[in-house]
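Feature request disguised as a bug report, sorry. It would help if multi-protein outputs had a clear separator. Right now it looks like this:
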Amino acid sequence: MTSLAQIAAFGGVVLLGAMSPGPDFAVVVRRSAVSGRGHGMAAAAGIAVGVFAWVAAAATGVAALLAASALAFTVVKVVGAAYLIYLGVKSLRAALRGGGTLELNVPDAGGRGSWAAFAEGLLTNVLNPKAALFFVALVPQFLASGLSALTLSAVALAGTVAWFLVVANVVSLLRRVFSRPAVRRAVDGLTGVALIGLGLKLASAGRP
């Protein structure tokens, strides 16, 4: 298998993982729907940086240590689950408050809002120990075939950010629909329930 084919294979597996429904997807959809394209793209960038970090950790053996250590795995799992539940409760509170009207003609707020969205995406990803298990199983196979850790990390970052930027932009195109308070309440409510459910599922998960 040529290097180009190996890169394509690795990128395809990472992309399929990114496309799987999960907390990353929920965060980008909610940020894009409620706060706009800019915040959705910032969350997508945070998730991609998290994936880059996990690939680098898997390549250097750090992720393997996490996966092998019951204590470390449990700590990350509990913190990650608590963070997802926190985001879910926050989203449900927004739904109960009823949101409000969305100014479609006002550009997305930048500054601290975008950084908060970036941090939310980053933390959602890096506090998920299942990502460690995924990359610990995947990355060594491609390192053994001759690809460098930097190449794998760059491919993972590019594929992940590309997918979630598509999600952010598609959702933002429907922003006029999300400008309706009832729709925004529904998005907040469904996202909140999903995040809490994912958090509880993560909290109850054991190491394979």
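(second protein starts here, but nothing in the output says so)
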Amino acid sequence: MKNSCKNIGLILLLIMFGSCVGEVKDKLSKAKEGVSNATTFVKEARKVESRIEKLKDAIPLTNEQLKGWLPTNLGDLERTGFKVGQTGMYQVNSVEGTYKIPEEKKKFSVMVIDGAGPTGSMMSTSYGLLGNFEMETEDEYKHQQTVEVEGVKAQQTYKKKSNHTQLMFSYKERFLVTVNASDMLPEETWDMVRKLKLEKLTDMTE
């Protein structure tokens, strides 16, 4: 429940950030004619604009499709619960699954939001930008960094004392993925992400 509340808060933040991206996009489209096409600024602006335009008219997967994709187990971890449509009020479809091994501390939760549609496209673009901010910071409590695993750029946070890993990334520039893993190292967490078979989501898109 606690993680779900954090995820909803993150979604609100992304919507606000996405709105800012939209405003910036409009201003950039007017200003970029006077800026050299070779600048990184203009290149990034065009990428953002292109992603939004591509996704805003795309047809989102239904909640039933998302539910059908969600695996019933991830290796030894069994699915203990799921939610669909929790972000429906924001006009985006989503699915959330929780997994654990009975009587063990290991827990894994994943939330996937389909970034298709007018609102989803803003959120997806904002999420995708997370992977573009190369950063790393570490102290006695946690290690946070931008990583790239098998072509996926993500913000990875590892809390040392609790052995908790969080991943945030955009998959195929459309699906917004947030993972929280308790009692798992980052390497173990990425192994669980592989078992999700996110590629099956893109197979279902039109």
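Even a blank line would do. Unrelated, but nice: The two ends are 33 Å apart (CA to CA).
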